[in-house]
Amino acid sequence: MKAHSSKVGVFVRIRPTANFSKDLIECLPDGQTVNIHHKKDSRRPQDSRKSQLSSFRLEGVLQDVSQGELYARVCQRVVLGALDGYNGTLMCFGQTGAGKTYTMTGSTESYKQRGIIPRALQEVFQEVENRTEHAFSVYLSYLEIYNETLVDLLSSLQGSPHPSPRGMVVSEEPGRGVFIRGLSIHPVHSEEEALNLLFEGEMNRIIESHALNRNSSRSHCIFTVHIESRSRTLSDAKYITSKLNLVDLAGSERLGKTGSEGRMFKEAMYINKSLSFLEQAILALADRRRDHVTFRQTKLTHALKDSLGGNCNTVLVANIYGEAAQIEETLSTLRFASRMMCVRTSPAVNQHMDPAAQIKKLKRDVQMLKGELSICNTLVNRPNIPYESSKAQQAEIHSQVQRYLEGSLEEISIISIRQVHAVFAQFKLAVQEQEQKVKAWLCQTYNLVEIDQCAKTADIKEWDTRGSTEDVSAQPLKNAHRPSSIKGKTKRFKAKESQSRRGGEGSPVSWKGLESASKSKLSSVQIPKREQESQEPDTESQDTQESESQDTQESQPPGNEPFHPDLLSLPSSTLTKAEAFEDFKVGRGSKLNRILKENKAVLLERRSLLQQLTEEVNAVKREMDCTAATIQQHKETRGGQGQYLVMEGEPDATSLKQLSDLKALYRQRYEVLRDIKAEINYCQHLVDQCRVRLLSEFDNWYKKSFLVPEEELERSMDKTLEQEDNQLPYELLPENSSSESFYNARYRTLKRRDRALSFTPVQGNSSSGSGQRRLPPILPIS
Ligand SMILES: Nc1ncnc2c1ncn2[C@@H]1O[C@H](COP(=O)(O)OP(=O)(O)OP(=O)(O)O)[C@@H](O)[C@H]1O
Predict the structure, then answer these.
(1) How many angstroms does the Cα of residue 334 sit away from the middle of ligand 1?
(2) In terms of CB atoms within 10 Å, which end of the chain has fewer, N or C?
(3) How much is the pLDDT for 567?
């Protein structure tokens, strides 16, 4: 939709104070102008006594306004715009302690003092209910930028994706704009659900205490409401989306005033630096002669790129103090605010096409074009060309390709593009069939099993034998006492090893033997048939232990972390991951493990064959070189100028014959060597596949069996919560029923926090090694 140019809306909010400096700060009756009387330049002694007036005219000066009034004047139109498909951004900027968080989030203890975000959420869900002609979907995300690190404040919620090892990044894509890759986005269906997420995120924010603010936010936070809306009445393909960014910036601070030291000093440096880049970006945006603005210097400016000069309705609230002591910072906040007034944005509805409806339309277009094509063909007298592919035509093309491959058809005549595609498809099919045949032949010859196939069989058998009454989660612990199946397996290895020893591991393989082994596809390689194994008697052997320990080393699971089953009401013994892997190999993963071993045995056999063969080939080569050298020597002693003639029966004639035989032999053996190398590559591929599959199945099994208490815990917690909620102290709630969601969400959050505290000691943000997270004192709801 066409964008129109719009100014950024800028408001000033003055934090209430008993010491309001009327001499220095003058709010004019127009409600839009604030005059600041200040010293000319306090840093220059000659100017320090001179007074100067700086006047700022903004969209509104808000002094002693309630939270409700502020929302109505500043935010409401942006929220309603977001429901109509316009992106919106609301940003609080100002000195530390000036009231940004109070404006944006407000008090989480008092419904009346709730800030912009809870009010915006209430408005969104009220509108969703009222606008019955549209179906809305609402999603939330909550991002924190702390010391140039992106943190997902909602990552602690159930269902959040596991954080990517590479962390989150600010990305840009055409058509999608700026977004945070890796940030979790949560669907919400009610105001209460949304508030739950807000309060959860609030608990995770980083706060510190300093001289100007007891609960100072040490980071920038962006709470985003993603809205999607589709018409319920119109069946067209269009739908609209929008993003509402509610930004609480960290406060700028003079280090002398806040007394920040150590980590807080470092935080303050990051905050001031990113705010100064933000100011630079605003300056550049406000200057219409500049055609390039650099947003990428900091995460904050990059993440806000779309919101500052993009296609959205943007509003800034500049929070200032009313006291004389902060007048310099107040002045610089107002300067920033007035620059922001010069920035223009181009709000536009984000309209998209529904792919399903678009497909329908395209189908209609194709039908129409086909009709036109057929008319054109008739007009130029072209024979009736088929543009649809019927089964008969496909069969015809198939037969043409087959005949072409066999040589009975010289060429395939081309009649349409569709037919060319069909011909290529047939060629591809022929190649694939050939590949399958070769693969099947190799598997059959070497008794190797495709990993997918064997895993499927293993799964089915596992399922069959487990039975319906068995407790799956208890399985690994049962397996901790190695089941008897391991014994059967140990016997197999013993048999295999003795067999391979009998097969001549100690005795050299003759050339003939090698050749025939390769040509007859190694009939001498003995691998036990899988069906026979289960019938073998149970016995333990030293051989097996060696074989197993060797295998364990090769297929070690990643990590060796101990886990604590007692936390999960499991028996109190503690297994390491390596021990669990051992159990897995004899239990659930026994089939895979066995196949891995068998394939490895074949691979080893092949390798030793290759080694012997290489030696043989090298020996032949040496012999060839030797014979050639002898012939050369004779040639030279005869003064060998010109042609070298040898009479039959002479010793040189024998040498030449011998050399030619050796060459033939060399070529022949070299070919066998090459074949064996190819076989080894194939075997290696199967062994690798087996190993990866074994490890990944183990990982899944391990996670399912031991390491996912959180989800279970969360589920059980939610149940408990529901029960507890039924006993919610409603007598404490105010009579206003619209506050119910707010207090419910608050109550749930406090409960969750209590439980979290009772489970783990309170720590800072593990990802950033920062200060405390915002954990407000538990107060009675009143
Ligand atoms: N308009 C207001 N009415 C009542 N109390 C306010 C108002 N503005 C701020 N306060 C109070 O002032 C204190 C500091 O406010 P707040 O934490 O919102 O500041 P901030 O600008 O977010 O600071 P920082 O940048 O350090 O996080 C809080 O106790 C808050 O309740």
Answers:
(1) 18
(2) C
(3) 32
Two tokens, residue 437: 């045949």
Using only C-alpha atoms, the chain has a radius of gyration, in whole angstroms, of 39
Q: Which residue has the higher pLDDT, 460 or 435?
A: 435
Helix axes 590-637, 485-500, angle to 10 degrees: 10
97 lines ligand 1 (CB under 6 A): yes
Secondary structure of 649-703 in HEC code, one letter for each residue: CCHHHHHHHHHHHHHHHHHHHHHHHHHHHHHHHHHHHHHHHHHHHHHHHHHHHHH
Residue 95 near residue 326 (C-beta atoms within 8 A) = yes
455, 460, 466, 470 alpha-carbon torsion, rounded to 10° = 90
Tell me: pLDDT of 470 over 50: no
Cβ of 216 closer than 6 Å to ligand 1, yes or no, is: yes
Residue 95, annotated ligand binder? Answer: yes
> ipTM value of the model?
0.98
pLDDT tens per residue across span 177-208: 889 999 999 999 999 999 999 999 988 887 77
Q: Which of 229, 234, 257, 205 is nearest to 100 (CA)?
A: 205
Q: Is 89 in the pocket of ligand 1 (CB under 6 A)?
A: no
C-alpha 460: how far from chain center: 31
Out of 301-310, 402-411, 610-619, 762-771, which region has the weakest mean confidence (pLDDT)?
762-771
Three-class DSSP category at 206: strand
SS (H, E, C) 72-116: HHHHHHHHHHHHCCEEEEEEEEEECCCCHHHHHCECCCCCCCECH
- Pairwise CA distance, residues 131 & 141, whole Å: 24
Q: Whose CA is nearest to atom 31 of ligand 1?
A: 102
Closest CA to 529 of 463, 595, 485, 464: 595
Cα separation, 658 vs 464, in Å, equals 65
What is the Cα–Cα distance from 141 to 224, expressed in whole angstroms?
5
In terms of Cα–Cα distance, which of 745, 419, 452, 774 is closest to 591? 452
Q: Which residues contact 601 (CB under 8 A, 6 or more apart)?
A: 496, 500, 527
Q: What residues form DSSP beta bridges with 169?
A: 181
| Nearest-angstrom CA–CA distance, 119 and 640 | 107
Q: Number of C-alpha atoms within 13 angstroms, CB side, residue 313? A: 20
**Best CA proximity match to 196, nearest among 714, 711, 732, 761:** 714
Q: Indicate the pTM of the whole model.
A: 0.55
99 lines ligand 1 (CB under 6 A): yes
E-strand spans in 211-296? 213-217, 220-231, 238-248
399-408 burial code (b ≥16 CB/10 A, e <16) = ebbeebeeee
Cα separation, 327 vs 97, in Å, equals 14
